[in-house]
Amino acid sequence: MSDTTADTTAQTTTDEAPANEATQEDQAARPTTDWEKEAKKWEARSKANFAAVKERDALAEAVKAKDADLASLQAKVEAFEHERKLDSWKTKVASEVGVPANLLRGTTLDEIEEHGKALAQAFKNLPRGPVVPPTGAESDTKTHDLAGFVGELFGSKD
Hints:
single chain
């Protein structure tokens, strides 16, 4: 029995030896991984990505600021265009109804026209004052003599 036990032990040792040799050969054939080098490589990539993220965030903020500026400028342009349109409408209505353009109010053409017509009607109903000729010019109306005027004033006619 001891012979059989020795034979089996020798046989298992011989069987293990080729397996160990194969494993060592596989390890020798495979390149060894330098984990420190790999870690540094991944760390460098991570830092580069972090820097890229920071740069992208800064650019995104700049784009947002530019978008806000653009929206503000567009609003100003629209306001200027609307003012110009209002001025042209006021000029048109003023020439049509005979009212000064600076007196007209409204934000649409219809409102300006209505206001112009209302002002024109109000101006027609106002009492007219005497027309005073410029200095040195003669009046185009006939003047009555003073006696005739006084006579008409007090009711006695000559």
